[in-house]
Amino acid sequence: MKKMIFKPYIKKLSAILCAAVMAVSASSVTVFAVSEPQEETGLVTTIPNLETSVPQTEQTQAETAAPDETVTTTALPYNEPVTDGTSNEGLLEQFNINESSTTIDLILLITILSLAPSILVMLTCFTRIIISFSLLRNAMGVQQTPPNQVMIGLALFLTLFIMSPVLQEMNEVAYVPYKNGEYTSIEAVQAASVPLKEWMLKNTSNDSMDFFLGLTNTEISAETEEDFVKEVSFTLVVPAFILSELKIGFEIGFLLYIPFLVIDIIVSTLLMSMGMMMLPPTTVSIPFKLLLFILCDGWSLLIGSLVTGFNT
Fold it and tell me: Is 165 within a domain?
């Protein structure tokens, strides 16, 4: 009985559902309907650029160009490098390296400064002074007193003191004319070498000079000293002067060793006679050496002998 009552209602409900489904399907079909075709004015296609940092090339038609020609412009993400025009000159040409005389002077100055220690040691009285100070320190038995810095500094200022007349003459005959524009750099060097060569020849022993003249088989027939200075080469004077300075320096060292050697002999003999063989003789002799050197004012005697020993 209940089944017969609900049957017409079920039929009506199914009919309503079918109508709703058809309405929804009809609306969805209209969504995908194709629109009417528009006028054919040309298609514009835009291609998105995923990498924004990469510059794109835009092709535009210039107004003044031909119809078939296109002008391509490239937009750079950075500023164009600054150039100095269309000049292809290199770095040397821009700084006038090949045409500037001051550049050669600068190169010569740097060369002289790099060779300054060698020039100081070889061409001045520095060699004799520093050898004498070193042998004096070894003769006294004090290995680190005075220190090397003090000895080198004292030898340097003594060298400037002894060489001051020569340096003054070199300044007058070479540097002042060069500064005034009278000499070129080469002429100034040649003029400055003359006073230095004369001083070196005055302080070079005849044996050393004859030794190098014999090695080179050089014969110089000069009647006066001026002619000899002009004829002898600078490369021959320098080694002869260095050899002479070495000889004189070791002779001074030998004379310095004698009094200190006597003190060592006396002290060692006394210790042996007293049976104190295990006591080093230098431990006792060093105070007596220092006392002797102080009492006789050894530094003044040594420096005075060194200064007066050069022919200026």
Answer: yes
pLDDT tens digits, residue range 265-304? 998 888 888 888 788 888 888 889 999 889 988 899 999 9
Q: Tell me the pLDDT tens digit for each residue of 102-128.
A: 677 678 778 878 887 887 788 889 999
Segment (H or E) for 58:
strand 57-60
Determine contact, residues 128/249, Cβ cutoff 8 Å.
yes
49: left (phi over 0), alpha (psi -120 to 50) or beta: beta
Q: Which of 152, 150, 192 is nearest to 172 (CA)?
A: 192
Token pair recorded at residue 106: 């600068």
Q: How many domains does the chain have?
A: 1
Domain with 207, as residue range(s), is 101-308
Side-chain half-sphere exposure of 133, counting CA atoms within 13 A: 23
Return the residue matching tokens 């002619």: 227
Give pTM, 2 decimals. 0.61
Amino acid 95 reads: F
